[in-house]
Structure formats: C-alpha cells, structure tokens
Design brief:
Layout: E1 12-16, H1 21-33, E2 37-41, H2 49-59, E3 64-65, E4 73-74, H3 78-88, E5 94-96, E6 99-103, E7 110-111, H4 121-126, E8 137-140, H5 157-167, E9 172-174, E10 182-186, H6 193-197
C-alpha cells in the first residue's frame, strides 16, 4: 500500500524486530525493487515495537513522519492528502485523519469513531478514551525530535506518546476527510500484541 501511493517522494524505514526467515526474505525483495525502502534490523535491546520506533525515528530524514505498524493499510492518496494538509497549515505540529478498521481476512471496512473535534485531548487520554490514534496521524518531524517512545512500556504505548505530545504543547489539528485514509487490522483470534499482554 505504500508503494502504491500517489505521492511519490517518500522514504520507508523498516525496522525488523526479529522476523522469521520467510518474512525476512520477503522484505529484502521489496528493498531490492525500490530504493526508497530502507531496511534495518533492531541492533539493541529491549526487543519491542517502541525500540524499533525510536530507531526508525532517529533514522528519519523527511520533513514529515508517519508511524505505522506491520499490519496497517493505507489508502492510495494517504500521503498526498496528508502532506498537502500540513503544507497548508505550517503552524500545525501534527494532524489526525479519519481511520477505519477491518477484520483480518475480511475486506469490509468500518469507519472508526473517535472523539473528533475535542479540544481536551489530554482529558480524553486520561479517561482512557482515544481522541484519535497515533497511527492515523502525520507529524512535523522537527516537532517530535525530542519525544521518545518509552521502551519499558509494552502495551498502549500510543497513549504515552500522545501524552508526551500534549505536555510538549504541540499544536494539533483535525482533518475532516469524508473517508478513512488509514485502516487498522483487527484479529478475531486475538493474535495481537495487546491480546498477549492483557488478560480478562
């Protein structure tokens, strides 16, 4: 979905957290076909997504940053629309876009309802309500250069990242596209990081 973007001037930084040989070879094939894709293996501990995100953000050279997980999908115009929005709003540090979700193996998309237009982002987070999701955001890279993912946190790391952005006083805007440009995969079998950490 990234290679299919209508906006062409991007770089993809893949940080491998220890994938199996089959997936490692598959990723290497992508790297060989597109010089915008840069592949790195996690070179330090701890082993988790936050470590990989910090490594990837340290290596990023672009004006804007998006943070994606391995199971996310994007619409073909995602980069184009988000970059245009940020270019039109130079005082915006980061912006949230509509997102959707789907069950693994099912093509039906459901629009995810977040508390759009809220002005009390920190209050929503402290009530454990998602005002938006990190993965559906675009960030001005210079605005988040001092914000780090807490590598000791193993679940709901996005809440911690959102709190840091709020405490840093970053300027946030909403984009009211009439369709989702980001899609989050749900697993019916509970095969996710959260489900392995959280019990009833």
């Amino acid at each position: 979905c990234i290679m299919a973007q209508t906006f062409q001037n991007w770089e993809l930084i893949l940080v491998d957290d220890g994938s199996d040989e089959v997936n490692y070879i598959k990723i290497k094939e992508f790297v060989l076909t597109d010089n915008r894709i840069h592949f790195f293996k996690r070179n330090r501990k701890p082993k988790n997504g936050d470590t990989c995100r910090n490594i990837g953000m340290d290596l990023s050279r672009g004006e804007y940053t998006m943070i994606l997980d391995a199971d996310d999908l994007l619409s073909e115009t995602c980069f184009e629309k988000r970059v245009a929005f940020m270019d039109k709003n130079p005082k915006c540090d980061y912006a949230s876009f509509p997102s959707g979700s789907f069950y693994d193996g099912n093509s039906r998309i459901s629009k995810r309802e977040f508390n759009y237009k809220t002005v009390d982002i920190l209050g929503q987070i402290l009530e454990a309500n998602y005002p938006f999701t990190v993965w559906a955001n675009i960030y001005r890279t210079s605005s988040i250069k001092n914000i780090r993912w807490d590598e000791k946190v193993y679940v709901y790391q996005d809440f911690d990242f959102m709190v840091q952005c709020e405490l840093a006083g970053l300027n946030h805007l909403w984009c009211d596209l009439d369709y989702p440009d980001y899609y989050y995969r749900l697993f019916k079998n509970g095969n996710s990081v959260c489900s392995k950490v959280i019990s009833k």
